[in-house]
């Protein structure tokens, strides 16, 4: 086990649509109302108004970094009309982090887009890159002193969603898939693998990322990167060649697009097997999480190693966590994941920080049941209830990881 570097960032992440509430001008808000079986995001965690309390909880626990997003649908409610009031709102968030001694890590796009953007063809429209670049230029005004900016969250998942949306619109698929929700350990059917995104859908995202990077570089001091949803693929016997193919379309295309970036975000939750036919649907297992994935804290090490080998860029773990109602399990998972992270550092990977997903229980893209948070949120009073895992992670952070990487005491 290797010690964590000096100045390592220890924090937690959230996204706007999942926590703010009433993101009424976004494509996700529109979608929630149309698709049967989807929970509504509604007031979400009301973090739009309570972000100060959220950040104080994080800082008081001992964490020193907070990843949050700015919501394009609020900042540009109509094409070309930018809201100065909303930009000021997000500037207040950035300032609140600084005032608490917390490093802000800001995401420009976390799955949700303005409704008008989606109605005009979304990421498949010919002017999508230009639209996003204009938004990035407006956002740059409030980001001048933010040290870490993520242009697009999980572009590979976003490409998959865009592909599904196109198939849904054209009638090729009849149902919009929402994540599978399962009771822990009681899954009775394998969780089907998500469809592999065609890189045709990834290409405009890569272009948008590069264009936004240039704008942000010229107007801010931020390190610029994007954050990839790592699948930690492993080959079953006979699946070695297929793994390379699947991993190219799911991950490597997006990792290669980081060429010229300042860092890359690693987001990792579980691992998946690939055999000669492709991704193997994950079977029912008593250890499965609330979203039906395998309990695989080692996925973080696999994801970091592959990202480091492919990009050689500084890495920020921008998401890692578990959907569970058992907070002790969250601590066990995270402790183990951090051990794998520390081993990867020991093997040479340049990892600069760890941001847990998520600070708060939040809206999991269609469902409220899967709880990823270090803090529970009452859905009617919005009262925050920190879980023991928050205290635990804060203690690890105060000791710069010694409790998990080896040291005088263990937690
Ligand atoms: O909640 C999501 C997040 O928005 C993107 N990464 C994965 C998380 C858990 O599914």
TrEMBL record:
Source species of the chain: Microbacterium panaciterrae
Pfam families with a match to the protein in the record: Glyco_hydro_1
Keyword Hydrolase applies: yes
Listed name of the protein: Family 1 glycosylhydrolase
InterPro entries: GH (IPR017853), Glyco_hydro_1 (IPR001360)
Sorted UniProt keywords: Glycosidase, Hydrolase
Family affiliation: Belongs to the glycosyl hydrolase 1 family.
């Amino acid at each position: 086990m290797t010690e964590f570097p000096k100045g390592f960032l220890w924090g937690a992440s959230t996204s706007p649509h999942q926590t703010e509430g009433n993101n009424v001008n976004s494509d996700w808000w529109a979608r929630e109302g149309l698709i049967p079986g989807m929970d509504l995001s509604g007031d979400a965690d009301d973090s739009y108004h309570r972000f100060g309390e959220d950040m104080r909880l994080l800082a008081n626990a001992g964490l020193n970094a907070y990843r949050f997003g700015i919501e394009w649908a609020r900042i540009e409610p109509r094409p070309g009309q930018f809201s100065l009031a909303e930009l000021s709102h997000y500037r207040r968030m950035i300032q609140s982090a600084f005032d608490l001694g917390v490093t802000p890590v800001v995401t420009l796009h976390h799955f949700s887009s303005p409704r008008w953007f989606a109605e005009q063809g979304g990421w498949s429209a010919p002017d999508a890159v230009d639209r996003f670049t204009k938004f990035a230029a407006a956002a740059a005004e409030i980001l001048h002193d933010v040290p870490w900016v993520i242009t697009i969250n999980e572009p590979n998942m976003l490409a998959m969603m865009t592909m599904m949306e196109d198939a849904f619109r054209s009638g090729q698929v009849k149902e919009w898939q929402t994540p599978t929700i399962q009771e822990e350990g009681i899954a009775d059917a394998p969780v089907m693998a998500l469809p592999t995104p065609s890189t045709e859908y990834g290409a405009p995202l890569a272009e948008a990322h590069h264009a936004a990077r240039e704008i942000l570089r010229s107007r801010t001091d931020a390190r610029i990167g994007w954050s990839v949803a790592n699948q930690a693929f492993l080959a079953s016997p006979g699946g070695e060649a297929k793994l390379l193919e699947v991993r190219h379309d799911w991950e490597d295309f997006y990792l290669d697009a980081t060429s010229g970036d300042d860092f890359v975000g690693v987001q990792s939750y579980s691992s998946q097997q690939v055999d000669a036919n492709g991704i193997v649907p994950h079977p029912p297992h008593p250890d499965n999480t609330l979203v039906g994935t395998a309990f695989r804290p080692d996925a973080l090490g696999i994801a970091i190693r592959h990202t480091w080998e492919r990009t050689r860029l500084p890495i920020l773990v921008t998401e890692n966590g578990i959907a569970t109602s058992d907070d002790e399990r969250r601590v066990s998972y995270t402790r183990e994941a951090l051990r794998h992270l520390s081993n990867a550092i020991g093997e040479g990977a340049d990892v600069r920080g760890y941001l847990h997903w998520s600070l708060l229980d939040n809206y999991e893209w269609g469902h409220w049941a899967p709880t990823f948070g270090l803090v529970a949120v009452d859905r009617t009073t919005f009262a925050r209830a920190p879980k023991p895992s928050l205290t635990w992670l804060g203690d690890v952070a105060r000791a710069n990881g010694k409790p998990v990487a080896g040291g005088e005491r263990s937690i």
